[in-house]
Design a protein that fits this description.
alpha/beta; Rossmann fold; 8 strands; NAD(P)-bd_dom_sf; oxidoreductase activity; oxidoreductase; NAD(P)-binding protein
């Protein structure tokens, strides 16, 4: 199958009726648009978010607008990624509600902010963007695996990364101790951006290691894990003075959330991924065109770094008392 230049939401998605999907951070921005598109394709979509009031308001708005043509449904799942223990609890709550999970989209992330540590001595950005999603996903593996072992299954894990990861100097990346996760980039004039870029590198390496785990299991687990770059998305111009003036100008450079969600939707439900599973296992997808397999940075392609990151993550979770 040849990749088309234009991604068609009506014709390029698999039938998601009777499928169950989780989208973290799904109450606003690209996450909300992703929830809408997947529900419109027929899925039951769990909007996983910290604020129940904001999530329920977002769900009410979707219902008011109608979820045609697929008539799927959207449900709320409380998820607080600021603490990996809460992430584990959320996963267990989900598994009490549902006996299947076809797609998990780890969309939620902290984009910027000062360097701060939590009570466990870990970078809050790294916890939200990587460690808690790692725990959430690992805890959900039993239901993901049981769904994947069904005849005709099409189970996927989608981790939102960013092209920003390419700004991290490959030579400086290592994962032997916790401080290698708590990189501050004090020397850099854009330290906040670099910390974000570093966290997205972690997500790509984690995706690589996760796919390796699936492939090497006996028997192999038929789950496709992908990391994606959704592209630049305008989630801010509405907050500027004179938004009616700035929004069309910003739109010349980056996508609105509606179109910014397309790479997530592609990874979650595109027919071509179902038809060519081996091709998409462990890949990094770009948004130009939507769903294009791209080559990440040298560090992001390093299998030893991926293994080291996995081992370090498991070790620190044991140290802080989060059972796997």
């Amino acid at each position: 199958m040849i990749m088309k230049e234009q991604f068609d939401l009506r014709n390029d998605l698999v039938d998601l009726r009777d499928k169950v999907i989780i989208v973290t951070g799904g109450n606003r921005g690209t996450g909300l648009a992703t929830v809408k598109h997947l529900a419109q394709a027929g899925a039951t979509v769990y909007m996983a978010a910290r604020s129940e009031s904001k999530a329920l308001a977002a769900i009410d708005k979707l219902n008011e607008e109608g979820l045609q043509p697929g008539n799927g449904q959207v449900k709320y799942l409380k998820l607080d990624l600021s603490d990996p223990r809460e992430a584990k609890t959320a996963a267990n709550v989900f598994m009490e509600k549902e006996k299947r999970l076809d797609v998990l989209i780890n969309n939620a992330a902290v984009l910027s902010g000062p360097f701060e540590k939590n009570a466990d001595g870990l970078s809050i950005m790294v916890v939200v963007n990587y460690i808690s999603p790692f725990v959430f996903t690992q805890t959900l593996l039993p239901v993901l695996t049981s769904t994947a072992n069904e005849v005709g299954s099409d189970v996927r894990i989608v981790n939102l990364a960013s092209i920003a990861h390419k700004f991290v100097p490959s030579a400086s990346v290592k994962f032997t101790q916790i401080k290698d996760l708590n990189v501050e980039y004090r020397w850099h004039p854009l330290s906040g951006f670099m910390r974000y870029a570093h966290s997205k590198l972690l997500d790509i390496l984690w995706t690589r290691a996760l796919q390796k785990q699936f492939n090497s299991a006996s028997p192999p687990i038929p789950i496709v894990a992908m990391a994606i770059h959704p592209g630049g998305v305008d989630t801010f111009s509405q907050n500027w003075p004179l938004p009616w003036f700035w929004k069309p100008i910003v739109a010349l450079a980056i996508n609105d959330p509606e179109h910014g969600s397309y790479t997530s939707v592609f990874a979650a439900a595109a027919k071509i991924v179902r038809d060519e599973k081996e091709k998409y296992k462990g890949v990094y997808l770009d948004n130009k065109p939507v769903g294009r397999i791209d080559v990440p940075s040298k560090a992001a392609r390093d299998d030893q770094l991926a293994d080291d990151l996995w081992s370090l993550t498991e070790r620190l979770l044991r140290e802080v008392g989060v059972k796997q």
